[in-house]
Design a protein that fits this description.
The chain is α+β, with helices and mostly antiparallel strands. It has a single domain, classed as OB fold (Dihydrolipoamide Acetyltransferase, E2P) (Beta Barrel). It has 4 helices and 8 strands. The strands form 3 sheets. Strands 1, 5, 6 and 7 form a 4-stranded mixed beta sheet that branches. The radius of gyration is 16 Å and the shape is globular.
């Protein structure tokens, strides 16, 4: 089962590229391996609760995951390994996620991730603007 946490933007670890086994690996995003390790350490061999909100085109479940009542999306953000995504605004966890992000930034946890994420957003906006002007 593939599960994606909702309400956060989390870097991805190294993964198989298009074409499946034997295809070149897609390199990890900055802090992607740290985020993957963080989650593996939290959930492997533990009983978790999952609240599924949706399913994407690829059949992946999207929602919230809890370990002992703790929202793991909030834990990732608090550790500086994810940032709040605008889709969280509609959730009951938005204020908690924003507080966790502020706490991570104040503690300067994985500051590089926030800089990389901001750069990617600015770069994407610039590309959109340029493509509209051409």
């Amino acid at each position: 089962m593939t599960f994606s946490g909702t309400g956060i933007d989390c870097p991805r670890g190294q993964r198989l590229g298009p074409g499946g086994p034997g295809a070149p690996l897609v390199p990890a995003d900055p802090y992607g391996e740290e985020a993957a390790t963080f989650m593996k350490d939290m959930v492997l061999q533990h009983e978790v609760e999952v609240e599924v909100e949706a399913m994407d085109k690829g059949g992946n479940f999207i929602g919230w995951m809890f370990l002992d009542g703790v929202n793991l999306s909030v834990s990732l953000v608090e550790a500086g390994l994810a940032k709040v995504h605008f889709t969280a605004e509609r959730s009951n966890f938005y204020k908690t996620l924003c507080a966790a992000e502020a706490k991570a930034k104040e503690a300067k946890k994985n500051v590089g991730f926030f800089r990389v994420a901001i750069f990617c957003v600015v770069f994407a906006l610039l590309c959109t603007i340029v493509s509209k002007c051409i």
